[in-house]
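Notes, Module 5: Reading structure tokens.

Key idea: the token line is not a picture. It is a compressed description, and you learn to read it the same way you learned to read a sequence, by spotting repeated patterns. We will look at two proteins. The first is printed below with its tokens.
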Amino acid sequence: QVQLVESGGGLVQPGGSLRLSCAASGRPFSINRMGWYRQAPGKQRELVAAIASGGSTNYADSVKGRFTISTDNAKVFLQMNSLKSEDTAVYYCNALVITIPAGRERGLYEYWGQGTQVTVSS
């Protein structure tokens, strides 16, 4: 099993900044892609940003120019600037990794973090 542990959420005023971190650990794995999703109350979970192992990134249109995703070894970060009230949501770390889960075959598997709350409010 691969575990994803997030940190860095909290309460911030509009226009402020937060940095989310997510660390992957567990059974040996090779990262294919890591990313951040978010889910606001009453809405579907949506992709915020993702970064592939080769370094290519993609962002939701709503966060382009304000959020930056980056990685360092088995960690992924999301720098969020110029935060708006509509960015309020639970943010989830996501990873696509090649690994061999216990009792299963080597392959590409998806894992999720537990989520961290980001609230943008004055």
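Here is the second protein, with the sequence above and the tokens below, as before.
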Amino acid sequence: QVEVVESGGGSVQAGGSLRLSCTVSGLTYGANNMGWFRQAPGREREGVSCVTWSGSITYYTDSVQGRFTISGAGGNTVYLQMNSLKPEDTAMYYCASVVNVQSNRCTPISSTYWGRGTQVTVSS
């Protein structure tokens, strides 16, 4: 049974930092593409940052470019370092294992495994 578990969310003031962690267990094959998605109330889910299993391709949505960093490619734990947080970053953040990663997009597929999410709240 595959399990995806996120941690590290919380509440911070604008300009602060958080680091999210995601650990995947139960996959029968090796490293895979992983990523972070978020969904704010009333908005659609969006891909925030993803990385291929080899680390050769990373994706960041425009609004987090230069502020967020994904790491951990090739392992069963991936991290999202979030700096200079803004109120508009407030959302539930979900980790996803087995995603399609391209340089200009990151999308889930039918076999994507999801975590339950961790809340990030940024106050002004």
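Summary for the second protein:
- The chain is about 0% helix and 55% strand.
- The first strand starts at residue 3 and ends at 7.
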